[in-house]
Amino acid sequence: MPRPLALRLLEAAPLLLFLAVILLFGTQSAGFLTAANAAQILAQAAPTVIVAVGMTFVLLTAGVDLSVGALMFIGAGVAGHLAIAGYPLPVSIAVMVAIGVAGGGVNALLVSRFGLVPFVATLATLYIGRGLGRWITETRAMNLPESFLVIGASEPLGLPLPVWAAAAVAVAGQCVLSTTPFGRYLYALGADPEGARKAGLPTRRLIAAVYVISGACAGLGGLLALARLGAVSPRFGEFYEFDAITASVLGGTSLYGGRGRVLPDTVVGALLIKTIFSGLVSVQADPYLYPLITATIIFLAVAVDSARSRLAARLTRRVIRVDA
Description:
Blueprint: H1 5-28, H2 35-60, H3 68-84, H4 89-113, H5 118-137, E1 142-143, H6 150-153, H7 161-179, H8 181-191, H9 193-198, H10 203-229, E2 231-232, H11 240-251, H12 262-282, H13 290-316
Antiparallel strand pairs: 1-2
Helix pairs in contact: 1-12, 1-13, 2-7, 2-10, 2-11, 2-12, 3-4, 3-5, 3-10, 4-5, 4-10, 7-8, 11-12, 11-13
């Protein structure tokens, strides 16, 4: 049975909006439609793409992870101290990812073992993480040595290394979701938690796994963001959780679980967000408008997701016919 035009338009909304934004800013700024600006947008979006990949896994189970920005902050603070102390770069990289995994493990324990609501559990770890990050950094900016910046400065085949890293994570994430039993179990769990339990799926382990994956992505995304910035500020990682959620939902991942893809959906959502802000800078828009633009994007993401969910539910609803 062919899908209705309205559903197809809602599913294609992120891509259509992305193209419309490119066209709009391209006509307003001569330097917007250039290869250099495109590479810059891709580099800026790379950390958000990676964090949003992990968030997509969590959202597929109808959960949410508000702690990713805080985990990025903790990891950056510890890695910054190690880099300044002269430890090799691989040590800082391993520590940031390990801290992300450990933080994801804490969330996994709170949600899957103790049964806390994901919003409450990860909101608590967000505040704890921000507090730990400020304690580690002593609420002061830390400038990293030049050796740390090689990650952000490298350009294999003409593209920044963070772009290649984000592409690799996105491809790997989509492969896991579309080709492995683990991915199929996540869709089943998100679509019908009770049915998944009755079918014998290891629901607790699945829920725990997605928070660990989200934490690992937060650690890696924080590493790329840190390598680009070259410094750890007291606000490092702030609002990344909202960017990641917005990118995932705007791309088509449902807040209600059971539906979503990394490629191309989540990646398009992340690129759309960064393209809008890059366009605003290129046309020299009033910076005070940025929070309003962010709020509009979030509202649009939720509205599109709600419309998709209602239409999909209407199409899949069983019709019982009573013959006279």
